[in-house]
Design a protein that fits this description.
This protein is α+β, with helices and mostly antiparallel strands and about 150 residues long. It contains four helices and seven strands. A five-stranded mixed beta barrel has the order 1-2-5-7-6. A two-stranded antiparallel sheet has the order 3-4. The longest helix is centred in the middle third of the chain and has 15 residues. It is globular.
Length: about 150
């Protein structure tokens, strides 16, 4: 595989923002690097998803990606809610640990992305919530939320 094809594959896998950073870094490291990006073939264009669409797909597919032992159930207090794409919530959370030990965190204030930003509707700072989180790809993301009773 030549350099251009290899680089094009990396760009496709990383996403547009990360690709821009990689290109900037490559150009900064060597002015001798010349790369030509060609359009991704139409067969692959359906795989390119917006951040919101990618998270919705993750929401649908997360149960296939993570074993039940990789999920963690926790309780916390909402500090901030950002419902914009991709959607995140900052929680003051007690220490959490999944059964398979892939998630271990001490008690802390932590921003989490959610797999579906619709979960954030109706949540306000100060709400006490019960939530379920799983490690999806490289991030710990919330897969379910509900207000605690």
């Amino acid at each position: 595989m030549n350099f251009a094809a290899c680089f094009r594959n990396k760009v496709h896998n990383m996403g547009l923002q990360a690709a821009r950073l990689a290109i900037a870094a490559a150009l900064a490291m060597s002015s001798a690097i010349v790369c030509v990006l060609t359009p991704i073939p139409a067969a692959h264009s359906q795989e390119l998803l917006s951040p919101g669409d990618w998270l919705e797909k993750l929401d649908r597919d997360h149960n296939k990606m993570v074993s039940p032992a990789g999920h963690v159930h926790a309780r916390g207090r909402v500090l901030d809610v950002d419902i914009e794409r991709p959607g995140s919530i900052t929680i003051l959370v007690d220490a959490i640990e999944s059964a398979d030990k892939t998630i271990r965190m001490p008690a802390m204030e932590m921003p989490f992305h959610v797999t579906n930003r619709r979960m954030l509707q109706g949540l306000r700072p100060g709400d006490v919530i019960d939530f379920e989180a799983a490690r999806l790809k490289t991030a710990v993301m919330i897969t379910r939320i509900r207000k605690a009773h």
